[in-house]
Write a structure and sequence with these properties.
Length: about 220
């Protein structure tokens, strides 16, 4: 069992992914008349020019390899958390961050993965899950767990769960871990979030679930 505590520094890439998901959610899928669009625009926060300005700012900070403050990040979480589609936005941002971190395996990579011993594959997957959690849950205590052959991570006082109602922010990490296990574990792995402080547990837990192929 291994645990780690990180300094609270938030990558602007996380904030940028959240605003990108917010803008995508608020972009109409159908063509609407100019008048209808002007009426609906105030309700479409993601299309607001202030959001666009913030996205450019986060891109510039990222280019300088800078960070944003914990307070600013908490304010962004609160802004999104007030929306009825908060969980979907957090999940979309998490999957986007996961896609950026883990490339799709090619033919050679898939062949190599088939030859990798199961134990080594599990250790690599767990190590990657911890690294993703460190990046997306700054300031939290992260512990690896292995119970009855099920590998996962536990997080005490996770800021994403504590800062959002009903733990919607946990969907950010869940989305990223979905990509992590899909890329490193292959099609036979999925991700579960069986414990959450928002549901009354004293910690959050994510586990890599082995999927039984359908016959």
């Amino acid at each position: 069992m291994r645990s780690t505590r990180e300094i609270v520094e938030v990558s602007p890439a996380i904030a940028l992914a959240l605003l990108t998901a917010l803008r995508a959610s608020d972009t109409p899928s159908e063509v609407i008349e100019d008048e209808s669009f002007r009426i609906s625009l105030p309700r479409r926060l993601g299309l607001n020019e202030v959001v666009d300005k913030q996205m450019r700012r986060y891109t510039e900070i990222s280019d300088r390899r800078g960070t944003i403050s914990a307070d600013e990040f908490a304010s962004l979480l609160g802004l999104i958390d007030r929306r009825p589609d908060a969980g979907a936005i957090f999940a979309a941002a998490g999957r986007s961050l996961g896609e950026a971190r883990f490339s799709r395996p090619g033919t050679v990579d898939r062949a190599r993965a088939r030859l990798t011993p199961a134990g080594l594959k599990r250790r690599r997957l767990l190590r990657s899950m911890i690294e993703v959690a460190r990046a997306l849950q700054p300031g939290s205590s992260i512990t690896s767990v292995s119970d009855a052959g099920v590998d996962g991570i536990e997080i005490r006082e996770p800021p994403l769960a504590a800062a959002t109602a009903a733990g919607a922010g946990c969907a950010l990490l869940t989305g990223a871990l979905e990509i992590c296990v899909a890329r490193l574990g292959g099609d036979l792995y999925g991700i579960d979030h069986p414990r959450c402080i928002a549901r009354g547990d004293d910690h959050c837990r994510w586990t890599a679930r082995r999927v039984v192929p359908s016959v």
